[in-house]
C-alpha cells in the first residue's frame, strides 16, 4: 500500500502516495481522525452514536456506512478495515500522522527539525460537525492533549539547544512555545533571556511589553515579579563591541549564563543573592563568571572580584 500522510494539526491535509486527496464529508473526516488517533477496533454502534448523536439508530448506522464508503473511496478498503461489528484504521510503515508524531517527538531537536519547521495549528482546525455530543468532547480533549505535547516539546528543545550554547535555535523554539502559550510566564522569560544572550535587549523589552499588554487585555493582571526583575536589569543599550564579546560562542554555557543573569535581576529586585558556580576543572567556570560580571558592569553594577588558590 502507498504511504499515507495525514496532517491533522491545523486545517487537515491528506496525501496518499504523495498525492493530495480530499475527504469531502466532515463526518467522514471526523471518523478518520477518531480511528487514526485512537487506534484499534471500534464498535459500529459506538461510532454511529458518537458522530450522529441526534439521529435514530438506523439513520446513524446508515450515515456511518456512507462515511466508511467515502473513506474507502479515497484510501482503499485495505486501509479502513470493516468487520460486522467494528471498524479500524490500518497503519503501514512509512505512514505519517503529525499528531501522533508530536506525541512521541524526539528529545533531540535536530532529529525533529523537518517536522518542527512550522508551528502546528489546532487539531482539525475548521472542522465543525454542528453537534454537541460526545465527539465534540473527544475532539476538545484531543486538541488539549495535542497542544500540550507540542508546547512541551518546544520547551524541551529550547532548553536542550540552550544547554549546547545554540542560542539562536533555542530562541526559535522558545518563540514557538510562546506562540502556543502567550500567557505562560516561563515562555516569556525564556524568550527574554535568549534575546539578551544574543545581544538584543530591545527585543526582550518588546517580548515583555507584548506579554504585559496581553495580560491586561485578557486577564486584567500584570506580569509576575520574575519578569519585572529581569526587565529592570536590562541595559539601556549594549555597545556593539561588548555584545560581540559577551555573545561569542561559549559551548554549553547558555543556560548557566541565563541563570546568573536571573539571579542578578532578583538581587536588584529583592536584595542580596548567593550563587555557587561549580564544575570540573577546565569546563569554563572562570570565563562564565567573567562574562556575567562584564554584563553586570554594563548595567551599572559595581563588582568586586577576589580569588584564592590552594
Molecular structure report:
With 310 residues, the protein is α+β, with helices and mostly antiparallel strands. It has a domain at 4-117: Arc Repressor Mutant, subunit A, CATH 1.10.10. It is 54% helix and 7% strand. It contains twelve helices and seven strands. The chain has helices at residues 26-38, 44-51, 57-75, 98-103, 134-163, 167-180, 185-197, 201-219, 225-232, 240-246, 254-270, 285-298; strands at residues 4-7, 13-16, 19-21, 42-43, 80-82, 86-89, 96-97. The strands form two sheets. It has a four-stranded mixed sheet with strand order 3-2-1-7. Strands 4-6-5 form a three-stranded antiparallel sheet. Residues 97-235 form the Bacterial transcriptional activator domain. Pfam families: BTAD. This is BTAD domain-containing putative transcriptional regulator. InterPro entries: AfsR-DnrI-RedD_regulator, BTAD, TPR-like_helical_dom_sf, WH-like_DNA-bd_sf.
SSE blueprint:
Blueprint: E1 4-7, E2 13-16, E3 19-21, H1 26-38, E4 42-43, H2 44-51, H3 57-75, E5 80-82, E6 86-89, E7 96-97, H4 98-103, H5 134-163, H6 167-180, H7 185-197, H8 201-219, H9 225-232, H10 240-246, H11 254-270, H12 285-298
Parallel strand pairs: 1-7
Antiparallel strand pairs: 1-2, 2-3, 4-6, 5-6
Helix pairs in contact: 1-3, 2-3, 5-6, 6-7, 7-8, 9-11, 11-12
Amino acid at each position: 500500500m502507498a504511504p499515507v500522510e495525514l496532517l491533522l494539526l491545523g486545517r487537515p491535509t491528506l496525501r496518499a502516495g504523495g498525492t493530495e486527496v480530499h475527504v469531502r464529508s466532515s463526518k467522514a473526516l471526523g471518523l478518520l481522525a477518531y480511528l487514526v488517533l485512537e487506534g484499534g477496533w471500534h464498535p459500529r454502534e459506538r461510532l454511529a452514536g458518537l458522530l450522529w448523536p441526534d439521529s435514530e439508530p438506523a439513520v446513524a448506522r446508515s450515515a456511518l456506512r456512507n462515511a466508511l464508503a467515502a473513506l474507502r473511496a479515497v484510501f482503499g478498503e485495505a486501509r479502513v478495515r470493516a468487520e460486522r461489528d467494528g471498524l479500524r484504521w490500518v497503519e503501514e510503515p512509512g505512514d505519517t500522522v503529525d499528531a501522533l508524531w508530536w506525541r512521541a517527538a524526539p528529545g533531540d531537536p535536530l532529529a525533529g527539525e523537518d517536522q518542527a519547521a512550522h508551528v502546528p495549528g489546532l487539531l482539525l482546525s475548521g472542522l465543525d460537525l454542528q453537534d454537541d455530543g460526545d465527539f465534540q468532547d473527544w475532539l476538545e480533549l484531543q486538541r488539549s492533549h495535542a497542544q500540550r505535547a507540542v508546547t512541551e516539546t518546544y520547551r524541551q528543545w529550547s532548553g536542550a539547544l540552550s544547554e549546547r550554547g545554540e542560542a539562536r535555535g533555542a530562541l526559535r523554539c522558545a518563540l514557538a512555545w510562546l506562540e502556543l502559550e502567550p500567557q505562560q510566564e516561563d515562555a516569556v522569560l525564556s524568550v527574554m533571556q535568549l534575546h539578551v544572550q544574543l545581544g538584543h535587549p530591545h527585543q526582550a523589552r518588546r517580548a515583555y511589553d507584548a506579554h504585559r499588554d496581553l495580560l491586561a487585555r485578557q486577564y486584567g493582571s500584570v506580569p509576575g515579579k520574575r519578569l519585572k526583575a529581569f526587565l529592570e536589569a536590562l541595559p539601556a543599550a549594549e555597545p556593539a563591541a561588548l555584545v560581540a564579546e559577551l555573545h561569542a560562542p561559549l559551548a554549553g554555557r547558555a543556560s548557566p549564563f541565563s541563570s546568573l543573569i536571573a539571579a542578578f535581576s532578583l538581587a536588584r529586585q529583592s536584595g542580596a543573592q548567593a550563587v555557587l558556580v561549580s564544575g570540573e576543572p577546565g569546563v569554563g567556570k572562570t570565563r562564565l563568571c567573567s562574562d556575567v560580571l562584564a554584563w553586570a558592569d554594563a548595567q551599572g553594577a559595581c563588582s568586586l572580584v577576589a580569588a584564592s588558590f590552594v
